[in-house]
Amino acid sequence: MDSNSVHLLEQQLFLTFIKGLLDSKHVSSTHTEKLQVLEVGCGHAYFFELLTSQFSNRLSVTGIDRHKEGIDAGEKRLGTRLGDHRLIQSSFLDFEPQQKEAYDVIIFTKSLHHCPPLDVTIERVYNLLKPHGLLIAEEIARIPTGETWLFDRMEILYAADLLKSNRPHQLEQVIKSSDKPPMERWAMLFGHHGHDHQHEPLATMEDILISINAKFGASNVRQHGNLPFYYHFFAFAGLTDTPLGANILTTLIAQEDKAIRDGKLTGQGIIVVAEKL
Ligand SMILES: C[S@@+](CC[C@H](N)C(=O)[O-])C[C@H]1O[C@@H](n2cnc3c(N)ncnc32)[C@H](O)[C@@H]1O
Question: Where is the Methyltransferase domain (predicted)?
Answer without folding.
Answer: 32-146
